[in-house]
Amino acid sequence: MLGRNKLLKPLNLTNKPTPIEKYQFNDFTIHIKRDDLNGLVESGNKARKLEYLLSDALNKKCDTIITAGYLNSNHCRITAYFCSRLGLKSILVLNCLKKRKKIEKDGNLLLDYLFGAEIHFLNNKEYKEKERYVENLVKRLEKKGYRPYYIPTGGSNEIGILGYRDCFLEMVDYLKENKIDGIFCAVGSGGTYAGLLYGKLLTNLDIPIYGILVDETIDYFKIKIKDILKKLDCQIDEKSFHLIDGYIGKGYGIPYKEEIKLMKEWAKKGIIFDLTYTGKAFYGMIKESKKIGLKNPLFIHTGGIFSIFAHKEYLK
Fold it and tell me: Are the CB atoms for 191 and 154 separated by under 8 Å?
């Protein structure tokens, strides 16, 4: 696995490196890595992962891409977009949480349809068994002559995280020159955080990487990230983990008033955070930086602008 990944070249579907912007305040400076500005309207962190994953799929002569996520998944939307560009069939397995009736085509879901994705809706109970569902789906497709390729939720595996290894490597000079004392990102499926950790380990830079959880638990992500990095022959100790779970609120995709207030304030500066990932993570970064005493934190803006339309009732 490691040898193949070393030789795997990503597709060139985005503009890189993405810019880093600096915002000076009285007590500290915020640096924002704008991965939402990668040359695509359909922007965000999933693009870096998919450049590797879709390269792997094409190398294997696959013609159908299957992936899964929540109803307004950013990952599923950009997967459908790239598939439309590359002439691949896309199948999205979406968790609609409740019954399938009266699902509003809004935000990312509307774009999924426009990009020509075939969509399979599962309720919350069914979605917990999505791996079995996908396994059966793959078998049915193969019988029909298709060559399916399954991308896990968020594109977070040993291939997808190479995109965020690259992200870390392209920031190395900036991190040193600006004396960055902490890097923050949202943790939803773990791939962005794992990739940044991998890049840090390859460069031996002594900068803590903080992951603000928006779902699941710290123990869950520690196990998952260790497993991913192990497949790359990379061992990681407990001291390298800085995972924080105090900003999830009532649950995944459920915003809270402090996050909404901050999101509106920064929108007036021209930066849009979504209310599922970046809003919670950015709020967490500010609170934790002040608590820890950081003066030069850097935030990875992972995009997600289209998902705010599914939360429009919170922004009126």
Answer: yes
